[in-house]
Amino acid sequence: MAIKTDDVFIYPTDTVWGIGCSLNSSIGHARIVEIKKTSKNKPLSIMFASVKDIYNNFHFPEEMTLVWLEEFFKLETTLGYPLKASKIKIPKWATGESHYLSVRSLETEVVRSIYQDIQAPFFSTSLNLTGSAPIISTAEALTFQQKLAPDAHFIESNKQDDLSGSSSTIIFFQENLDFEIKREGRKIEEVKNHLMKLFQGKNKNEINF
Fold this sequence. Notes:
Elements: E1 8-12, E2 17-22, H1 26-36, E3 45-48, H2 51-57, H3 66-72, E4 77-82, E5 100-105, H4 109-118, E6 122-126, H5 138-148, E7 153-154, E8 169-173, E9 179-183, H6 188-195
Parallel strand pairs: 1-7, 3-5, 4-8
Antiparallel strand pairs: 1-2, 2-6, 3-6, 4-5, 8-9
């Protein structure tokens, strides 16, 4: 059954199971808040079907090339970036009081199928009640859906339970490349090494990790 704009869906990411809805749906967004029992002002990450979509829809400094971003998003990461740098319209209710957007890209069959249905980027957050551990198994995800979100589409992958089980590394950037690591995931050392490529000629000790 095709996913419609206001529908909520549960799906596997590269790290944990997620729950999402179209970026254009205030109804879906409100339903996710209700299901997770979280604050309506808490910003959710936005998932894009390809890194190229992210690159084309934001104003990035020249150092953050498409190639650099493609490698960055392979490292289980979320990129926080100033809302004002977005080239696309972001609903005001979608970001709470934050001046940043958190964006991700997973070029997987599941994400492509979702995007094909709704034809838009989509909100994505971990599948769990707020304060509880994220769900990493298909069985637990299905139980959650049946008990707490029976109206949500349940989307499985051919690579069942092939999830890292660790939340993504979150890095917030300014447009001048100043950055802050908000959360460290399991590939943090690889991420730090990749960040160094943005600062050619600088010693690692000079960069505020």
